């Protein structure tokens, strides 16, 4: 497509000393803008990918991928269902659970929480909460000992520590000779968990499965069975198949119904941020168009001479396309290189910035994720690089066409 003559002239115009230094400055500014835009876009997308990965691991590490429960909130014969569900494709773990809303009371401190009854022998198969304990262990939950594990924010709000007592008030009444009273039970704090999510640290507590069944008067029933899959993205298909197999007597849900909207919001935010940051590259491309237009005016006499020697308008057009493309490609390559280096070393750069400004960017007492994670995807890097180069080449078309339309007689009349 491009002959050696066009390549030679185009690259010569790129690094030649122009009489108009302002044109050189605009060209440098456009190259710098492309470089910074590409670098920032790669870095920010990598950080957003890191936050999404961190949130996904925290949320999906503690919630069930698929949940099977009764339509009335109770599941009978859960042992048989558990054995049956473990044989389903993609299922690698299953655990029964009981779940109800209660009030926790310690003196004058009151906290509403979601109380979950779990079996420690099964819980580790479907959740990673067992490995995120500040104090105690899920193995401390033993039948008929009425122990309770609190989220760290729940424990802080109630002002309790392991070994202290809390009162559990169930929102169900019982008739006594003294009248209608809510059901109350004292529990001993046997552990404190910290997941790093408000939903669990500030709103959830755990007790033993049998204790929960007795507290809520479920008999031998449970609320449902939680399943963990080998592929969390298969949750929808597995849930749909289970619903078809089990029928309308059971309710099957998956993680996307409860948390899918959150991850869709994160994805939408990432797309919007990408478009906003690409505007930085867009501004640089406008500078590139302006510098090429001025370069065409500056080289009008040279273009006229080339046309008199028989160079066609299409070849003149290619000369200036090459000149602009060199600026865009060089800026993109440098931007991609710096962006990749920065994205892969965020954990090193951020502490240096924090040391310079004298404070943490994400304080631990304010944000659940106090470190800035980075997860660079090479497909994002390649897409950004290609998009930047293509946009740079397209930006050269208008000035190049302007150069191809120059008439030699008009340009050389006053030379």
Written overview of the protein:
The chain is of the alpha+beta class and 415 residues long. The chain has 2 domains: 4-58 and 262-412, no CATH class; 72-247, no CATH class. 54% of the residues lie in helices and 20% in strands. The protein is built from 15 helices and 10 strands. The chain has helices at 4-15, 21-60, 78-86, 120-123, 152-158, 198-201, 209-215, 235-246, 255-298, 300-308, 313-344, 346-357, 378-395, 397-404, 408-412, and strands at 66-70, 91-106, 109-118, 133-136, 147-151, 165-176, 179-193, 204-208, 224-229, 250-254. It has a 6-stranded mixed beta barrel with strand order 2-3-8-5-7-6. A hairpin with a 2-residue loop joins strand 6 (165-176) and strand 7. Helix 9 packs across helix 11 (313-344), helix 9 packs parallel to helix 13 (378-395) and helix 11 (313-344) runs antiparallel to helix 14 (397-404). The model has no long low-confidence stretch (mean pLDDT 80).
């Amino acid at each position: 497509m491009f002959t050696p003559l066009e390549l030679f002239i185009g690259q010569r115009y790129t690094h030649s000393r122009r009489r108009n230094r302002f044109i050189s400055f605009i060209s440098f500014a456009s190259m710098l803008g492309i470089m910074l835009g590409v670098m920032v876009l790669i870095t920010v997308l990598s950080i957003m990918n890191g936050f999404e990965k961190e949130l996904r691991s925290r949320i999906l590490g503690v919630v069930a991928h698929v949940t099977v429960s009764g339509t009335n909130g109770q599941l009978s014969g859960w042992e048989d269902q558990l054995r049956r569900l473990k044989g389903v494709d993609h299922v690698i773990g299953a655990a029964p659970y009981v779940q109800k809303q209660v009030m926790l009371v310690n003196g004058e401190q009151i906290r509403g929480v979601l109380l979950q009854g779990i079996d420690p022998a099964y819980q580790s198969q479907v959740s990673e909460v067992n490995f995120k304990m500040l104090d105690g262990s899920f193995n401390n939950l033993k039948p008929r000992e009425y122990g309770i594990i609190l989220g760290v924010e729940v424990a802080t709000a109630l002002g309790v520590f392991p070994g202290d007592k809390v009162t559990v008030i169930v929102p169900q009444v019982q008739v006594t000779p003294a009248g209608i009273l809510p059901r109350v039970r004292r529990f001993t704090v046997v552990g404190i968990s910290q997941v790093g999510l408000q939903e669990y640290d500030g709103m959830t507590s755990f007790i033993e499965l049998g204790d929960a069944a007795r507290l809520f008067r479920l008999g031998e029933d449970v609320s449902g069975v939680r399943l963990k899959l080998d592929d969390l993205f298969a949750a929808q298909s597995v849930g749909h198949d289970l619903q078809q197999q089990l029928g309308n007597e059971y309710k099957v849900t998956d993680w996307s119904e409860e948390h899918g909207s959150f991850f869709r919001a994160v994805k939408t935010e990432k797309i919007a941020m990408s478009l906003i940051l690409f505007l930085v590259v867009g501004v640089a491309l406008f500078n590139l168009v302006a510098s090429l237009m001025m370069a065409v005016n500056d080289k009008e006499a040279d273009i006229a001479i080339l046309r008199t020697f028989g160079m066609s308008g299409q070849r003149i057009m290619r000369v200036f396309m090459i000149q602009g493309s060199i600026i865009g490609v060089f800026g993109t390559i440098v931007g991609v290189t710096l962006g990749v280096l920065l994205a892969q070393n965020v954990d090193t750069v951020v502490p240096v910035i924090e040391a310079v400004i004298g404070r943490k960017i994400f304080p631990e007492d304010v944000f659940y994720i106090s470190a800035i994670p980075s997860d660079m995807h090479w497909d994002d890097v390649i897409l950004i690089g290609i998009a930047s180069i293509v946009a740079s080449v397209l930006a050269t078309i208008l000035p190049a066409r302007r150069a191809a339309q120059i008439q030699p007689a008009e340009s050389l009349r006053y030379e």
